[in-house]
Inverse folding.
C-alpha cells in the first residue's frame, strides 16, 4: 500500500471516530487508532467548513446572529453525534460524584447523566454560544470556526499523547500511543489554521492550552490518566476557551 493510501485510510478512520460523516467501509489492512491520531485536526477542519456553510446560509436567510450561533452549535453536535458533549457530562459526573479512582471511572461509564454533568455541559455550551455571538457580531465567521474546530482537536491529540490511559480498555486505551511524527503533523495543521486570526491567535491558543492542561492535570490526579470521556471533554473545554479568548479581540 502506498504512503498516500495509508494516510487516506487513517484520515477516514479518524473521521469515523470523531464524527458522523460518511466515510464508507475500510478494507484490510485497516489502520489502528494510534495511526490515525494525526488526522484529528483534519477532521476538525472538515467540520469547521461544514459549520461555516451553515452559518452563512443562516445569515443569507436573514436570521439574527443569535439564531445563527444556535444553528451552528446544534449542527456541530449533530455532526459529531454529541461525542464531546457526552464526554464533558460524564467527566463532570465522575469527577464530582466519585470519591475514589474506581468510583469515578465507574460513574463515567454510566450512560445516565447527573446534576454535575447537566451543570457542566449547560454552562460550557452557554459560554461558548455567547462568545460565538460576540465574534459573529463583529463579522468574523469562517476563519474562527475553522481555527477553533481544528485547534481544539489538536489539544485532544496532545492530551492523549502525554497522558497514560486510565483504563486497560476503552477508546483512551485503544488510541493511546506516544512518540513519532504524528503529533507534529497535527501541530503544523493547527498553526496554519490560526494564522488568519492575526494577533488574537496567541491568546486563543494560550486559552485553549490552559483549559486542556487544567483538565489533563485533574484527570491525572483523579483517575490516573486519560479516557475517551476525558478527551471529549478536553475538546469541548478547549473550544469554549478559544471562543471566549477570541471574543475579547472583536
Amino acid at each position: 500500500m502506498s504512503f498516500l493510501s495509508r494516510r487516506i485510510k487513517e484520515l477516514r478512520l479518524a473521521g469515523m471516530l470523531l464524527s458522523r460523516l460518511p466515510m464508507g467501509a475500510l478494507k484490510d489492512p485497516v489502520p489502528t487508532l494510534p495511526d490515525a491520531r494525526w488526522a484529528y485536526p483534519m477532521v476538525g477542519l472538515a467540520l469547521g467548513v461544514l459549520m461555516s456553510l451553515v452559518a452563512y446560509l443562516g445569515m443569507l436567510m436573514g436570521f439574527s446572529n443569535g439564531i445563527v450561533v444556535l444553528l451552528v452549535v446544534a449542527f456541530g453536535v449533530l455532526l459529531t453525534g454529541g461525542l464531546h458533549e457526552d464526554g464533558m457530562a460524564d467527566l463532570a459526573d465522575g469527577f464530582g460524584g466519585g470519591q475514589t479512582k474506581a468510583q469515578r471511572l465507574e460513574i463515567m461509564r454510566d450512560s445516565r447523566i447527573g446534576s454535575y454533568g447537566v451543570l457542566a455541559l449547560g454552562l460550557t455550551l452557554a459560554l461558548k454560544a455567547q462568545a460565538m455571538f460576540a465574534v459573529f457580531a463583529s463579522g468574523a465567521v469562517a476563519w474562527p470556526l475553522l481555527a477553533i474546530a481544528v485547534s481544539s482537536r489538536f489539544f485532544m491529540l496532545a492530551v492523549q499523547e502525554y497522558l497514560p490511559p486510565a483504563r486497560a480498555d476503552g477508546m483512551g486505551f485503544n488510541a493511546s500511543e506516544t512518540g513519532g511524527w504524528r503529533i507534529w503533523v497535527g501541530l503544523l495543521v493547527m498553526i496554519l489554521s490560526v494564522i488568519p486570526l492575526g494577533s488574537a491567535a496567541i491568546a486563543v491558543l494560550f486559552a485553549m492550552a490552559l483549559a486542556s492542561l487544567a483538565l489533563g492535570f485533574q484527570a491525572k490526579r483523579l483517575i490516573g490518566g486519560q479516557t475517551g470521556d476525558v478527551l471529549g471533554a478536553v475538546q469541548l473545554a478547549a473550544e469554549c476557551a478559544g471562543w471566549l479568548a477570541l471574543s475579547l479581540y472583536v
